[in-house]
Design a protein that fits this description.
The complex is a heterodimer of chains A (about 250) and B (about 400). With about 250 residues, chain A is of the alpha/beta class. Chain A is built from 6 helices and 11 strands. Chain A is globular, with a radius of gyration of 22 Å. Chain B has 10 helices and 9 strands. In chain B, a hairpin with a 2-residue loop joins strand 8 and strand 9. The longest helix of chain B is centred in the middle third of the chain and has 35 residues, at about 240-275. Classes of the chains: A alpha/beta (about 250), B alpha+beta (about 400).
Chain lengths: ~250, ~400
């Protein structure tokens, strides 16, 4: 089975984000980066598919040199090969990412391309479906359970208030959601083996961007709460504010 | 998904910059394992006085038993910095869990690799690495602790093997061990024997009533006319020096391990003091609290630097046992002080099992004492710098 898993590097979820002076990106000073947690699910699912069906797992990332860290983490979990599609610029949108990934992936004719359903930095949720469109193959995203038997794909996906069972066929693009599996800890053996796995670097094929970030702002500081101290005399005022100001009733 | 990033350890002196990617990755994977598999369950096991046996296959899967040994014997060929960092992270979880791994690696796999025959290496090491076998190490006796040379456990040569008589005490993993490394005198000379579980005349009752290392199995080993076949004598030992070489390995792991214990106490106390309000401000804003925090972070940093250079010496083959004594002695002492201060800073909350402090404080009492008491390491250093022995 030819398995591809696309990975991205994101700021650690505990990072306190600051906006840079240009207001178009974050200030990277003091930020530590991790493999996107949803991509970690995708890597685990890729490894499970390989263990069940044989074949190999290639981890691909589009980005700058820094993105090699995401591929290295995939190596440490057990991925076999790694490819960095090198962007000339650190500014790229979801289309640029998708177009580059699809251009590279298409001639490889993989059976399955796995993604995390989103990356936790920009939260675009666009790349898996764009790549599938560009490849001309189906996509199922927000998948919490995946079964592939004899080329038939059965996926369980989260929908508002419930679950949906979807069937399709290979080749396919899958977007992994929390719950699909429990990612393994990289063990010492794979950490040691990862050292000797080379990352293939190739040039980007597209750099156009179809969207542009014009400004970034932090969310407004949380307003302080209101405390009512007069017991039942305050009830009507409380109800009024809940209805008119908080708009929750 | 893994909770990567929620715990960052302590790195006041950018020691991370001195670590390789691989060393950091190994530390981080054990750190995540401890955050997710050890810390959520350990208080309960500590209260119940049980070792969490279900962690053994998981630790084996991580590859942390005997990881410095060559790959052909089930090891990972990692260096001593990575090994030390593994111990640091495990002990951040619990000293009992770290003790299990220390014994398996430093006191069981190490001597079999170092003093065992090729057959013994092949028979035991891969299974110990996979956690399919558990080992223990019997040197200390009820009447011979700091003075192991006085041991009275005896081996007598008989046809086809040896007969062991005697008793060992304070043996981590004893009751659950599949194989015990037992040191006994044969014609007055210390020899090492591999005693398999179930050998006639060998029992290993568990030590009851411990108020420290409660999530670890401690036992007595009793040998009563216990027959050991010839092939279970380790051929390459050289007297008391051999078990002492094992202790050097274990002490090395402890020197690193207790840094993890100290970091956990410091972080708990720091976070608590920032959120606990008294007299209208966080107690972290009071000078007495800050003095304690300054002491803690400084001593943790010094301990890290001691261990870092010790690891470099060990990897280059230049490390002397006395240098290990210095790190074991110092780091246990400061970890004990830090645990005590943390307990005070948490006030009454410090005694609750909701926080890890009291468990760590109780554990460090054992760790400061075992593998050479604080006092013995003091005398080893004293002897080393003066040339005069205060104990022999």
């Amino acid at each position: 089975m030819k398995i591809i898993v696309c990975v991205s590097l994101v700021p650690d979820s505990t990072t306190k984000v600051k906006i840079s002076d240009s207001k178009k990106s974050i200030d990277e000073n003091g930020v530590s980066y991790i493999l996107n947690p949803y991509d970690e699910l995708a890597v685990e699912e890729a490894l499970k598919l390989k263990e069940k069906n044989g074949g190999d797992v290639t981890a691909i990332s589009f980005g700058t040199d820094k993105s090699k860290e995401a591929i290295k983490k995939a190596f440490q979990m057990g991925a076999d090969k790694g490819v960095l599609i090198k962007s000339g610029s650190p500014d790229f949108d979801s289309y640029t990412v998708s177009k580059n990934l699809a251009d590279f992936i298409k001639p490889l004719n993989p059976d399955i391309v796995l993604f995390g359903k989103q990356s936790i930095d920009f939260d675009g949720l666009l790349v898996p479906s764009m790549v599938s469109e560009l490849l001309g193959i189906p996509c199922i995203s927000v998948v919490v359970k995946l079964d592939i038997t004899d080329g038939k794909v059965t996926a369980e996906r989260e929908v508002e208030g419930g679950k949906e069972i979807v069937e399709s066929t290979l080749p396919i693009v899958i977007g992994a959601q929390k719950g699909i599996n429990d990612p393994r800890y990289p063990n010492l053996k794979s950490i040691m083996a990862a050292k000797s796995k080379p990352i293939e670097e190739i040039a980007a094929t597209y750099s156009g961007n179809k969207t542009e970030i014009t400004e970034m702002n932090l969310p407004p500081a949380k307003a302080s709460g209101k405390i009512f101290v007069n017991g039942k005399d305050d009830v009507s005022e409380l109800v009024r504010l809940l209805r008119e100001e908080a708009k929750v009733i | 998904m893994q909770t990567v990033g929620t715990y960052k350890g302590v790195d006041y002196y950018a020691i991370d910059d001195m670590l390789t990617d691989e060393e950091k990755s190994i530390r981080d994977t054990v750190r995540d394992f401890v955050s997710e598999e050890v810390i959520p369950i350990i208080e309960e096991y500590n209260q119940e006085m049980h070792f969490p046996m279900q962690l053994v296959p998981k630790m084996a899967e991580l590859g942390i038993f005997g990881p410095t040994l060559p790959v052909e014997y089930g090891g990972m060929g990692i260096n001593n910095i990575a090994y030390g960092l593994i111990m640091q992270e495990l002990e951040r979880g619990d000293s009992g869990v770290r003790s299990f791994a220390s014994v398996q690696s430093g006191l069981v796999m190490y001597p079999i690799y170092e003093f065992g025959s090729e057959d013994q290496r092949k028979k035991y090491l891969p299974k110990l690495a996979k956690g399919e076998m558990i080992g223990c190490f019997g040197l200390t006796e009820p009447d011979f602790g700091s003075n192991p040379g006085g041991m009275i456990t005896k081996a007598e040569k008989v046809d086809g093997g040896y007969v062991l008589n005697g008793a060992k005490m304070w043996i981590t993993n004893g009751t659950i061990a599949d194989v015990a490394i037992v040191w006994a005198k044969l014609d007055g000379k210390v020899k090492g024997f591999l005693v398999d579980k179930g050998t006639k005349g060998y029992t290993a009752p568990e030590t009851k009533g411990k108020l420290s290392l409660r999530a670890s199995v401690t036992s007595e080993l009793v040998f009563s006319d216990c027959f050991i076949p010839d092939e279970n004598l380790m051929p390459n030992t050289s007297g008391l020096k051999s078990p002492l070489m094992c202790l050097t390995q274990a002490r090395y792991g402890i020197a690193w391990g207790v840094i993890g214990l100290a970091m956990e106490c410091y972080n708990t106390a720091l976070n608590y003091s920032l959120s606990r309000i008294q007299f209208g401000k966080p107690i972290a804003g009071f000078q007495i609290t800050q003095e304690k925090l300054a002491y803690m972070v400084t001593e943790i940093t010094k301990a890290q630097l001691l261990c870092y250079q010790l690891a470099k010496l060990k990897d280059s083959g230049k490390m002397r046992p006395q240098q290990v004594s210095m790190a074991k002695r110092n780091n246990c002492e400061i970890a004990k002080n830090i645990a005590g201060m943390a307990r005070e800073m948490l006030g009454a909350n410090g005694i609750l099992d909701e926080y890890p402090i009291m468990r760590h404080q109780n554990n460090i009492e054992s760790v400061k004492t075992y593998e050479g008491t604080h006092e013995m390491h003091t005398l080893i250093l004293g002897q080393d710098v003066t040339g005069l022995s205060a104990f022999e």
